Amino acid sequence: MKKLNELYENIPYDTEIKGIKINSKEVESGDLFVCTMGVTADRHNFIDDAVSHGASALVVSRKDIKTSIPSVYVENTNKELPFLCSKFYDHPEDKMTMIGVTGTDGKTTTSTVIHTLMGNDICGYLGSNGANCSKFNEETQNSTPDADKLYKIFKKFLDAGCKYVSFEASSEAFYRGRLNAMKFDISVLTNITEDHLNVHKTLDNYIECKCKLFSNTKKDGLCILNHDDEHFERVKRSCNGKVLTYGKGIDNDLQIISYVLKPRFTKIKIKYKNKEYDIESSLLGEYNVYNLAAALLVCLELGCNIKDLQKKTQKLEVDGRFKILNTETPYTVVVDYAHTTNAVKSVLDFVHTLDVNRSIVVIGSAGGREKEKRPLMGKTVADNANYAIFTADDPRDEDPEVIAKEMASEIKDKESYEIEVDRKKAVRRAIDMAKPKDIVLILGKGCETSQKLKDGPVYYSDTESAYEAVEIRKLREK
Prior knowledge:
With 478 residues, the chain is of the alpha/beta class. The chain folds into three domains: 2-77, 3-Layer(aba) Sandwich (Udp-n-acetylmuramoylalanyl-d-glutamate--2,6- Diaminopimelate Ligase, Chain: A, domain 1), CATH 3.40.1390.10; 92-313, UDP-N-acetylmuramoyl-L-alanine:D-glutamate ligase (3-Layer(aba) Sandwich), CATH 3.40.1190; 323-477, Alpha-Beta Complex (Protein-Tyrosine Phosphatase, Chain A). α4 packs across α10.
């Protein structure tokens, strides 16, 4: 808790501030309401609502605002917010080692693996799978939340005894300025492929936002890059800290010498500081070889013992990432978060290495996102799987049937797919058609437990839908 005149010098108000909010519906008594400009809304228009919920003061960037509670004028509330939140929570990011992970794919896996290998008693995780450490676990709406929530979580990590935070630093977070008040100790690049152009408009803009993580790294910090990514040189030029690399070449700080992909585990041989080590991992697929290499390089540079890491890698789990369900059936059911074209292709490439018969994919595309990528996504599935069922993901304000038809628009073989917009029915359809040694891949939502529809979110789980469909089939076949 702070007073308003502690947050802003030369302000006469000693109003007590209990918290900071940018959503008027979330305001509680004693909160400071910051009127930021949202994607579709000017939050100055919700001042009355914030006051009715108990806001004790405002931060505004419009001089025409008249209100009964104290207000502070700043030129740009969006730019102000992260610095204000950092100050309110006593700069928790400066008291822990901040590890930011960015990339089109692999952010969640890499940041989660770092968190797990470091130990959740001393390292917090923040990203698509929520915020958690040994002391608490809570859901988050965004991979990298708005600054009012972000710094509150950082303070909770610090109070829980964390010395490190491993978190997803998304390109949109940099685009929205959520991380502008922070300098990173370690920054990590997984990969860059074309994505999120609904926000960034061009690939150059997208890469530029990714690069902000590395230009915002401390001079004595580390920038850990995927040397095999096609945009490596571009990102390297933006690095402010010492550059370390991982990849297949002998000139990498951590070299991926070789790997063997198995249905239930992966064997990897790496080289670090002129010594070779064997790693066995429960993470599957070539893409996870790279994610694990990045995480290992972070942990080794932070002083972790390689023998301890070798033990821990054997038991790694990441929610919603190639989760093989325990269905006790002659066919296999997998739930995975893959929702970009590159991620879907990577998952299917791995499936091709397995001893399976047919691959049946259930997938959709989120509404309010890049429409242009839907035909490519659909064609990628059709070209790399035996059968596809296009369904709803998070349609939001869009018609899910239109989205599904857009995904199928460039597929010539009309017998290779069908459309079922009810996701639960689509999952049941895929499982009903599965034969021995087939694999059913339910892609796009992973461990999420909601589906965003036109009228708002509703509860939904791919995992629960799959288990339910399996049980219904078993009862029918008895």
